[in-house]
Structure formats: structure tokens, C-alpha cells
Amino acid sequence: MNPSPPFVELKDVTLEYTGDGAATRAIERASVSIARGEFVAIAGPSGCGKTTILKLVAGLLKATAGRVNVKGELVRGPLKIVGMAFQNPTLLPWRTTLQNVLLPLEIVQPHKSQYRKNSKPYREAAHALLATVGLADFAERQPWQLSGGMQQRASLCRALIHAPEILLLDEPFGALDAFTREELWGVLQTLWQKRQCTVILVTHDLREAVYLANTVYVMSRRPGRLVYRAAVNLPRPRTLEDTFKPEFTEAVHAIRRQIEGGRE
């Protein structure tokens, strides 16, 4: 029986930015295969092209060479099946938490037309998402009334409200304190286990990568190349207590050694 084709695939992808008559090669001959429903983390030195890979998968950038395929098709432009969350939650200050979560439905087709005709099921879905992340009582609050961790929870709900097949996360917890960040690892793990969408997480935090991902990829310094792949064979659901176990710390140290080796 033939194995299932990759859901997301980069094949020998190179990307160069041009400006002021000069070209900067961000990533070089990067190849990766991601299965449907897999949770992948990408780690590496600052400026190595991690965020560039997210933009390529989302169709926001076009590769200079190589191919980016999603669901077996060449990515030719922005994909509607993608949800994104960033380091800063960027909630609109004049909208309530619920209204911020519903925002993609007012923009993304085919949800835009359906939402205008009947918003009730979408509002119910938004309330259910907010309940999952512990914000059931904050739906009508303004962003300034939420803590940073609460705002990031709302941002995750907004990224998931249109049931994307791919969730792209760019350092989503990087601006939070350690206690809140670790708490949100559990929140994200719960959301992923319920939704089973394909997740690509960019992070500098190797403990975060090992806690959340099935597979961790390490990139070299710019021009970024995918130089190491580590399968994380730890049982789920994972807990903060697991992060102190020898098998967890050894997985983190093994990845760190690869990153430090890539700096030489």
C-alpha cells in the first residue's frame, strides 16, 4: 500500500529577498514533509528564516526556487485554509473579545457570506472556543480589560474560528512571562487534540517545542537550511511535570546541541 502523500511539503525551496540592488538569501534548499494533523515545531537561531517558512506555506511569499505544496497542489497565493497567530495578539481595541474572535468570518469566504445570512452557529462556535481556553466569562470584555495571557488565548480562538486545516504560529507566547507561557502550552495542546489540524509552530523555546510538537526541525544560520529532524516520542497529554523527566530534558539538550553546532 502506498503511503499517504505529505499534507504540507517544501521541496528544495530557496527564497531570496531583493532590495537596493542586492539580494539576501533567507532560506536555501529547504525540504520538509508534514503529515495531515501533525504538530511540527521549527527552531533555530534568530534570522534563520523560520518565519519565512510560515509565509511560504501560507502563500504570502513565493519561493525563488523549489516548490511549496499543500494538499498535493502547488501554492500559488494566499490560502484560505490557514489560520495564523503571532507573538502580539493584535486584538482590535474597539471590539469585544467575542467580536475579535469572529473577525475572520467577516472576511474569509465562504464563511463571510454564510455569516451574514446566519451568524448564530458561528457565535455559538466562538463561545465554545472561548470556554475551551477559559474565557467564557470574558466574551464581552474589551482587550484592555484582559491580561496578556488572556489576549493570546483570544488570538488563538480567532485563528481557529473558521476551522482552518493548517494553523501557523509565530512565537505566539514569546512576549509572555514564564508562568503564563507554560500555562498556555497546555491550552494549545488541548485545542490541537480537539481540532487535529496541522500545526507549524515557530519558537525559540526548546522546552516549548518538545512539549508541544510531534516533530522538531532545526534550522541553520542564514541562509536557513533544515539541518536536523527530531521525533518527539513522548506520550500525550503532556504535563508540566513531564518537563522535569530525564527523557524530556535529554530531548531538549539533543536539539540544543544541534543548534549550537549550526552556529560554528
Tell me briefly what this model is:
The chain has 264 residues and is of the alpha/beta class.
Helix/strand/pairing class, anyone? Answer: alpha/beta
- Give the H and E element order: EEEHEEEHHHHEHEHEEH
The share of residues in helices is 25-40%
Q: Which runs of at least 5 residues are low in confidence (pLDDT < 50)?
A: none
How would a textbook summarize the main sheet? Answer: 6 strands, mixed
Strand order of the largest sheet: 6-7-8-3-9-10
Quick check: average pLDDT? Answer: 90
User: Total strand count, please?
Assistant: 10
Radius of gyration: 19 Å
Beta content comes to 15-25%
Morphology call? globular
Terminal CA distance: 43 Å
Helices, by number, come to: 8
Can you describe this structure?
This protein is α/β, with parallel strands linked by helices and 264 residues long. It has a domain at 93-164. The protein contains eight helices and ten strands. A six-stranded mixed sheet has the order 6-7-8-3-9-10, with helices on both faces. Strands 2-1-4-5 form a four-stranded antiparallel sheet. The radius of gyration is 19 Å and the shape is globular. 37% of the residues are buried. The mean pLDDT is 90.
Describe the structure using short key phrases.
single chain; 264 residues; alpha/beta; 6-stranded mixed β-sheet; 4-stranded antiparallel β-sheet; 8 helices; 10 strands
